[in-house]
Specification:
Blueprint lengths: L1 E2 H11 L20 H7 L4 E2 L2 E3 L1 E4 L1 E2 L10 H9 L3 E4 L3 E5 L5 E10 L3 E9 L4 E9 L4 E10 L3 E9 L4 E10 L2 E9 L5 E9 L2 E10 L5 E11 L3 E10 L6 E12 L2 E10 L4 E10 L4 H9 L4 H17 L6 H13 L3
Parallel strand pairs: 2-8, 6-8, 7-9, 8-10, 9-11, 10-12, 11-13, 12-14, 13-15, 14-16, 15-17, 16-18, 17-19, 18-20, 19-21
Antiparallel strand pairs: 1-5, 3-7, 4-6
Helix pairs in contact: 1-3, 5-6
Amino acid sequence: MIRLDDIRKRAQAALPNTAFQPHGDSPTIKSYTDWSAFEKAMSLPVSYGVFSGVNPTDVLASISFDPAANRMLAHHFANIISFFLADSDHITLSSEKDHFALQHVLLCVRNDGTIRIDDLAESGPKSATIDVLVHPGVSSSLLLRVSGDFPQHLHIRYHLGDSSSVDVSSVVIGKNAHVHHEFFLNGSGASVRYRGASIRGRSDVVTDAFVRGSDNFARVSHALFSAKSDFLVHRGVIRVERQSSGANVDMDSAFYTVGGLAVNVPMLEVLTSDVSRASHRARDLALDSERLFYLQTRGLSLSSAEELYVSSIMRSFAGDLATRDFVKDAIRSFAESLQR
């Protein structure tokens, strides 16, 4: 059992000597987050923020986060007020004005089904950490929305047991968002499929998968849609460890930029020769002139043709989230920016 007081003391001891980016500064592993915005936010009073679908607790059966991993996590756990247990299939985590909201949620997935998480920084800065425990034999889908005008830090760790699977669809529309997914495929026959997209604004999305069991499957796809003044990043690694066998893994990072900046860093680390498939790629999704002309010959305006094309891409990368109104609005804004 992990008590709140224990991890808070560990984090308080680590905080003075912990950097936001403790690792190196090479193009493959550096963080592109504007940490100065979080340093400023750390001076604000701490609050729970606003929750729905969770209950407070000061004890967890287990906790996987290392509070000394970086300065943001150290501050997070040094000042966190309570842990929370999810009790709903729709969880909303949001912020409060003039406060820095700090939240930790344990989500135990015991049955098949779909879970929706909305992580919103609409009133102030926030930091959220989530442990997702997928029980053996369970197949779950998770829809994740990350959006807001204030700095937000989200760190999610997915733990998969034997024959368990999770299908994650994620959309990030943040002005200054750092989103870190970590998938731990510890059980035999465990699988993960992640489909995500970043639309406009500034965000740094990290997707790391650690393949440790036999006959694991991991497919990670993330697309960036940046226009003028945007700075979007996707970094990720799929690590196939020596004890795994028969793994099937794929890392896909894509971008569509018009006057903005996009950074793609897909990586593989294969530490065993016993794999069935391993691949990674980075690609440009921009609409070519022939496709654009074809759509216009069918009676569409230039703006409508580009919006239709971007929408079709979004469905492949964001799954069910592509039909949500907030995603449609973001796609429309992006398509309109192409005409300016």
